[in-house]
What we know:
Rossmann fold, Alpha-Beta Plaits, 20% strand
Amino acid sequence: MLGNGVVGILSESVNKWERRVPLTPSHCARLLHSGREKTGVARIVVQPSTKRIHHDSLYEDVGCDISDDLSTCGLILGIKQPKLDMILPDRAYAFFSHTHKAQKENMPLLEKILAKRVSLYDYELIVGDHGKRLLAFGKYAGRAGIIDFLCGLGQRYLSLGYSTPLLSLGASYMYPSLAAAKAAVISVGEEIASQGLPSGICPLVFVFTGSGNVSHGAQEIFKLLPHTFVEPSRLPELFGKVRNLNSPARTSKRVFQVYGCVVTSRDMVEHKDPSKIFDKADYYAHPEHYNPVFHEKVAPYASAIVNCIYWEKRFPRLLSTQQLQDLMRKGCPLVGISDITCDVGGSIEFVNETTSIDLPFFRYDPLTDSYHHDMEGNGILCSAVDILPTEFAKEASQHFGDILSQFVGSLASTADVSKLPAHLKRACIAHGGALTSLYEYIPRMRNSDTEDISDNLANGHSNKKYSVLVSLSGHLFDQFLINEALDIIEAAGGSFHLVKCQVGQSTSAMSYSELEVGADDREVLDQIIDSLTSVANPSENHVIISQEMNKISLKVGKIQETVDTTEFDTKRRKSVLILGAGRVCQPAVELLASTGSSSSRQWYKTCLETDFEEQNDVHVIVASLYLKDAEEIIQGIPNATAVELDVTDHGSLCEYISQVEVVVSLLPQSCHVVIANVCIELKKHLVTASYVDNSMSMLDEKAKNAGITILGEMGLDPGIDHMMAMKMINEAHVRKGKIKSFTSYCGGLPSPAAANNPLAYKFSWNPAGAIRAGQNPATYKSQDETVHVNGDDLYYSAVRFRIPELPAFALECLPNRNSLIYGELYGIGYEASTIFRGTLRYEGFSEIMATLARIGLFNAEAHPLLEHESRPTFRTFLYKLLKIDTEAMDEAVIGEKEITERIVKLGHCKDGGAAVKAAKTIMFLGLLERTEIPVSCHSAFAVTCHRMEEKLAYSRTEQDMVLLHHEVEVDFPDSQHTEHHTATLLEFGKAKNGKMTSAMALTVGVPVAIGALLLLVNKITTPGVLRPIQPEVYVPALDILQAYGIKLMEKTE
């Protein structure tokens, strides 16, 4: 049965809230559709579940079998352990078993595993080459925990008499996605930034403990609020400064941000010997040499504590009951504690119970030492939910399955454990009814009666004449040194009892065990100690024997080589070079430079399974031909440098590119090939927002050979349009749907308030490109018929267009170039009967532009009237185009009415209404003015561009708008109906510090920066020339876009 390629997925039964899955339907689809030869998976059987985050039908749609019976499965996957009576014999199981720690409560499970001859793989033990666990949910616990906590704080502050923006926040599980939850937090942050917080609760200080994934996840959400991070040593200064602002004389003063403080073990304790500084390795081995100081140096200034550290009894508590009581009597501002680690009676002594997702809080009153389950009254709000990641079951499962799906094939198709890859072989605890060699220590440690021995030691009793308490700190379980240590004790004739045990959460973290080692002969005990010393480090003496015979501390392994002593504030700076300092540049720089900083920039910087915080600062170099332009871009932006660079200077270009990991080119498309060749030569990634033309495509093989990625079309259109389209299409294909119709519409427009001219249009760039686009031919497919539109007829092909969800927008649509190539690009060319891409404008635009074109205002040929040094006026030139004889007409009376009549008479319009609109536009553009035409204008096209650039420009306070809308019709087999899917992006320009950043700049600059970020964290691993149509690009990119505040609205009918 083992290795038969059939995979089972358990229905989770431990907790009603457990909705996570080890593999999502999309993971199953990839495993099944790629074929057993490639994936090792032949079938997938899913136990039915009505509470799972993904409905059974979605699994069925991708080819999974739905059945309670998993007897045909050689490999069975779950999140939590199955019910013991449901474990099938001679199968392989993978789930979080927690058995390798030899904890008493998990031993019945291990006994059942052995009795049923099960091969047990524990996700917790799958460790990558980088020394970290590959399968974990820590960041999701942090994310969900902090959102729930913020929600509870809003309610708690209200009960204390303060209304805050936090009150509008819901619990994590109430949001349909992590992105939606983050958007809600961002909205709360925007309200804090604009309305402020009541002075009576400020400074609002959040203290985060630890520097692991849980803490990083919590901080990630916190950073979506306007914030400043403060070093622990600066808390008294901050407290005094803000409290002075909030003095009685200034009771109306409000604070417009929150404060964060990250503390690690160095901030929680200090050495008992004042002459010695904190040393993490020493603290882990000798915690008895340290005194707690968190309650004195940090807690007095904390409003909220987010606890993310694992704790065990040998360490000082973070906060004891007595310490809290003393703090509250002194007026400490502490309002709440979220113990995300859910360590009952642990580092937070008074957290004496776990809470649930539906009842996440209790109130502890330290002055009466009483517990309450309401928000009213005195005390501290406490939370300790033990299953937080399932609140974001969809994203957590996606993240988990992305990794697990890489291993499933090996586990499902291999019966011989010895033939597995090393990282999977090490994760196998049991096989064929026996423990594997690496875990032989488990029964030996089980033989110790932990509770009895602890009591005996506390009372000074032992069953041996001589005994000693040995602390083994180091890499005991990941390097399996615990086996060797136990062998030494038993071989010498000694005995041991396990007193305490903590297994490190990764190979970069130490494990700790306390053993009571005994012998009836003092010499035998000395021999054991000497042998353990030699295992610890043959070259150095790591045994420290105290004056008391029963107190020995032993460090196992070369700790100074494996302990991370740089946990506090270590920075690894990566660099990005941005070429070009135009309008798009600043949003890109702001996003990139804010990564890892402690500024108040609100944006989402997590790339799914990548711990982005570990990358810390990104340094951005902005290069421009004119240094002043680059300096203006980076003004006020940290981690950014401006340089002067001429990209035609090959030596200088190579010098700057060699200094960075990723290059972003915002220069004209004609420059990209030169830049790309240098990137290939120096093996640096490149991102652009421009179309991938033939010259770029030809570099694909070179880029692959260099091992770099050239990511093009990473803007708005092209860019976000690709990503939205591929998400919709691939989701339909996973469900075995067939794309019947694909239509896409995009437009950069003035906001309704700024559409204050006859064209209802404005330009943020030179209008020449937009005018030329109106003369391009177009091709599209409609109902299996190919339609060609000549460039001269493009404006006449415009049709009325409405979006039901946005009824206020009266729009029209023009076909946009060749839509058919997108059928091939998106893989729907043969299945879709309609493929159409269009450009959006406000209704009436095309009619006016068509009239202006027929008048001749877009003619690019040199005009005889403009060839002379003596310049005609705009009025004279217009008369020439309209063939107005000034001798026959009184020039003084020529106005809008006369121009309208002339347009109709010349046959440029079919009806008077269109002629009126065209005449109003001509008047608005100033083409009837008596001002001389500049000498730079040699054609009617140049004259029109000059006037449009001047008259149709945005003012400093006007907003532009970007609207992108996709519609996809999907047919499904054996279905009588067609599903209609829509996705819409609506973004407006944003004002900041009196300066407007256009929506167009945002929706081009932000995606191109996201592309650079994904390359920096190795989220994009495919080399060559790419568009953002692969899931490894568009899945994280769309998530980050939403979290950054660029909203995508999706709907299915």
